[in-house]
Model the fold of this input.
Amino acid sequence: MKPTNLVKQLLLFTLILGCFFGVCSCETNNPKQDKTAFVTLKQAYQDYFPIGVAVSPSNLKDSLERALILAQFSSITAENVMKAGPIHPEIDRYNWEQADQVANFARAHNLKLRGHALIWHQQYPTWFFKDQQGNQISKDTLYARMRSHIHTVMNRYKDVIYAWDVVNEAVSDSVHKTYRESSPFYQIAGKEYLVKAFEFAKEADPEALLYYNDYNAVQPSKVNRIESLLEDLLQAGAPIDGVGIQGHWSIYEPSKEELTSALDLYSSLGLDIQITELDISLYRWEKHQRPLREGENQGFTASLEQKQIAQYESIFEVFRNYKEVITGVTFWNLSDRYSWLDHYPVEGRKNYPLLFDTILQPKKVYHKVVNFNQK
Ligand code: 9MR
Done:
């Protein structure tokens, strides 16, 4: 065995014995903590909601990451490989390989699988909106393409995907507009495309739960716009089951009050709620990409860590109180080894937004999230 493999095997062994069954990394001087230290996320929340994680095929190939996923989570979402761009690169060609790897992993290990995402103005294939001459297609052609895409993808994973993000991020970033009018879907069909997307999804798999999914979904300035969109859908009779609150939050927001009032509002519409893309950034939310500023890459300081602990404790307390309306909580990425926030909105600004550290060990905040009964 090569030394690197030996090191890997040893780490895997410690991870399995230690983190998953509680002998290594907890606050071992505290006997009270020891008693429950073996609890995993999925065990701690089994009476509340499934705990999920967004994965890539490379997570599933890495033996340590794979073990961590299996030990801690009861649900997965494909981070990228089921989006229209990767999965349907040409009009008459689907690329199933990577999406199948995620689906087969869920099938083999009996994990719940969320489908992400059927209709989105990003990561779509360029052919989707153009005819052979490169001109914009008509509304009827758009609907035919949407229908065929939605049916084909949903049919393939019907046996394993229980919930789909049917439409993603269709609300405008401007406070003056409800709909994202720059979306090619909107430009061709207006807001009716959302209703069609839900109708096609319902036809394809009447059993699947169908969600509208968005970011900043508890931010006071956006909640009302998402509410208008949802009301439009409900009024038009769209078969929507729930709303996905992405949960790309930070140590600065949201407050408990913002979170609870958004949960109250969405559930008052009769919709189910899932937290679909949770992470707690060390930095404030910014929409636009920009270069790194000097001194900005401060690392994971003790003070930031305390703020992150406080924020995770606060939001999970709310989640637990709302277990009747929240039917799933999914983290966006597995550990601080890699997060999309290492690249966005500032390329190269390392972030530490998750419960596991860069070598996949549970962080202090992990213990706070699982040992909530010990307060
Ligand atoms: O995490 C995803 C990242 O790898 C992709 O580059 C990016 C492309 O836009 O999409 C990220 O996931 C997004 C998700 O699909 C929808 N909500 C926002 C997520 C973070 O951007």
Notes: The chain has one domain: 41-282+296-370. The radius of gyration is 21 Å. The longest strand covers residues 272-281.
